[in-house]
Amino acid sequence: MAHTESTDAVVIDGLDVRRSNKQVLHSVSARVGRGSITGLLGPSGCGKSTLMRSIVGTQIVQSGSVTVLDLPAGSAPLRSRVGYVTQAPSIYSDLTVRDNVSYFGALYKKSKAGIAAAIDAVGMTDHANHRGDALSGGQRTRVSLACALVAEPEVLVLDEPTVGLDPVLRVDLWERFAALAAAGTTLIVSSHVMDEADHCSALLLMREGRLLADLSPDELRTRTGETSLEKAFLALIRDEESAA
Ligand SMILES: Nc1ncnc2c1ncn2[C@@H]1O[C@H](COP(=O)(O)OP(=O)(O)OP(=O)(O)O)[C@@H](O)[C@H]1O
User: Fold this and answer.
1) CB distance 22 to ligand 1 below 6 Å
2) Fewest 10 Å CB contacts: which of 32, 74, 81, 233?
3) pTM above the 0.80 mark?
4) Domains of the chain by start residue, with CATH
């Protein structure tokens, strides 16, 4: 029988996670479509990073399953196919932008052109010869992203990539995410700022370790009758509380 790829890049089924004896994720189930930009949204501490860690395979899970590109999350063949950028930009301060990206490019046998393309994709070509310690916080974030992009991952998991960026840079980064998705990359992007939700084709809304809803921004507006996504999210929480 011919093997057919599923249309979902990520399938999460009944995921329970405990951290230091605290139940952090409660039976989370969700699907992320290939080539989508899925926003993982919810208040600070609701479990977004823990869910992302479960998707990239760095989180010990208590029960349930996470499948990425039809393989168990964290399995060896996924290493070059899944990129992960954590909240804290992790680049070498004593290396230039180009050397930082080249270091990761070498792991995946990427050419000079591939390295230049990753630097260009985050708008850092003019700074390619600058050392890490001469960059602003936002620039370091973008170089971290270039280090993940250089592997040309099929799934890119980004933990609050726009935190601390000015509005112009935020818009610029979202445009770059849209271009990546248009080229077929699946992006999972966390944020606790609801006004970023409109850049996403799908939303996973979380609260206190539970998935409240899995819908598009327009579906969220229709379901709650609110035009502002911030208000819509609050209305959803109120509905949940009154139903409980
Ligand atoms: N290393 C850890 N040990 C124990 N508990 C942790 C650890 N890291 C996080 N937690 C707890 O797990 C819960 C979820 O944290 P997580 O970092 O996943 O949330 P988040 O939604 O990503 O938050 P933020 O938006 O602030 O980054 C929180 O209650 C937090 O206190």
Assistant:
1) yes
2) 81
3) yes
4) 1-81+154-244 (3.40.50.300), 88-152 (no CATH)
